[in-house]
């Protein structure tokens, strides 16, 4: 019988019609519960509630400004002209762990590179990011498990925050966008490195390209940190080549043979390009993070070196100002 297909991937048939050299007893594909993804969503929601409680808009608002949804009292939101995303003030975000370069370097608060990943600028920001986390996170975690997806999420968030401090040094940056773009980058890496496992490759590739292009385009607007997106995406892409590499489709483990002494098909576990991508990605990740931290703590202003790079983060328009909190 031919292969069966699921979620765009080729899988071995479990209908008893295995090739003679493969044992039908052992189930070779394992799926995991998306524990990290669901826990991360719950944690982000709880932290946003804590931030809004600390914000206490009615106690800090200056007339004639008025809090949005004032009936929520302490949990009401900042005025629309201060935060159009239905959220807290910039001062609250900074106090609660928002990312700012001078605080990381001058005040030695490096923990902000990670704390900012768990903060959100408003309800709209939170809902969009958590929806994306569920879409990308559940599928990856079901296949690769809590450890690998957890590492992808956290390290991609760190990579996004690091690039943001280098290019977007004068704004407060918050949000899980860098980590989420890391999951998107890892999904693309899985498609590339596990190419033989997919049967509808072109359509999946174009879907990922379109999703990434649309989100990078949104990042050209204010209050969205495109450098965090780019840093997270690149980090996740490289990590994906390292953490999500599978044996090529059709590879047979010795333990899967009906008779361990039988000669199995001659097929290498990994293809050459998979190994090349694995090694190159490790080297690029190590080099990138070392260079990034050296530049950060030596106060290197990359915008002075690349003056047009700031346009990647925000394109000026008569409709908005680019001097805003990023998320």
Automatic annotation (TrEMBL):
Q: Tell me which UniProt keywords the record has, alphabetically.
A: Hydrolase, Membrane, Protease, Serine protease, Transmembrane, Transmembrane helix
Give the Enzyme Commission number.
3.4.21.105
This protein's source sits in the domain of life called Eukaryota
Any GO CC annotation of this UniProt entry: endomembrane system
Q: Which GO terms describe its molecular function?
A: serine-type endopeptidase activity
* Stored InterPro entries: Peptidase_S54_rhomboid-like (IPR002610), Peptidase_S54_rhomboid_dom (IPR022764), Rhomboid-like_sf (IPR035952)
Topology in the membrane? Multi-pass membrane protein
**Where does the Peptidase S54 rhomboid domain lie?**
108-245
Q: Name its cellular compartments.
A: Membrane
User: Transmembrane region positions?
Assistant: 31-53, 117-138, 145-166, 172-192, 204-221, 227-245, 272-297
Reaction(s) the record says it catalyses: Cleaves type-1 transmembrane domains using a catalytic dyad composed of serine and histidine that are contributed by different transmembrane domains
Q: Which family does it belong to?
A: Belongs to the peptidase S54 family.
* Task of the protein: Serine protease involved in intramembrane proteolysis.
Record-given protein name: RHOMBOID-like protein
Species of provenance: Physcomitrium patens
What are the leading ranks of the lineage? Eukaryota, Viridiplantae, Streptophyta, Embryophyta, Bryophyta
């Amino acid at each position: 019988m031919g292969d069966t297909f699921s979620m765009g991937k080729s899988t071995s048939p479990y209908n008893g019609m295995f090739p003679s050299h493969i044992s039908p007893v052992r189930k070779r594909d394992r799926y995991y519960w998306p524990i990290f993804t669901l826990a991360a969503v719950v944690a982000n929601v709880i932290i946003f509630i804590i931030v809004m409680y600390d914000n206490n808009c009615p106690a800090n608002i200056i007339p004639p400004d008025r809090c949005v949804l004032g009936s929520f009292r302490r949990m009401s939101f900042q005025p629309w002209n201060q935060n159009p995303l239905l959220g807290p003030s910039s001062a609250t975000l900074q106090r609660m762990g928002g990312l700012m370069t001078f605080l990381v370097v001058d005040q030695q608060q490096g923990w902000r590179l990670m704390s900012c990943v768990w903060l959100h600028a408003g309800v709209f920001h939170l809902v969009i990011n958590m929806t994306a986390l569920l879409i990308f996170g559940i599928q990856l975690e079901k296949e690769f498990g809590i450890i690998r997806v957890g590492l992808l999420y956290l390290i991609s968030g760190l990579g996004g925050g690091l690039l943001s401090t280098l290019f977007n040094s004068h704004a407060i940056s918050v949000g899980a966008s860098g980590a989420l773009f890391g999951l998107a980058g890892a999904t693309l890496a899985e498609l590339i490195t596990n190419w033989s496992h997919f049967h509808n490759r072109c359509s999946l590739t174009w879907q990922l390209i379109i999703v990434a292009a649309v989100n990078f385009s949104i990042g050209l607007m204010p209050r969205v940190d495109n450098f965090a997106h780019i840093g997270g995406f690149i980090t996740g892409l490289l990590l994906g080549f390292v953490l999500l590499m599978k044996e090529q489709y059709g590879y047979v483990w010795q333990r899967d043979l009906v008779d361990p002494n039988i000669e199995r098909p001659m097929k290498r576990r990994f293809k050459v390009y998979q190994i090349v991508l694995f090694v190159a990605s490790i080297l690029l990740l190590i080099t990138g993070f070392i260079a990034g931290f050296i530049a950060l703590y030596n106060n290197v202003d990359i915008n002075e070196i690349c003056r047009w790079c700031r346009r990647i983060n925000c394109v000026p328009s008569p409709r908005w100002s680019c001097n805003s909190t990023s998320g």
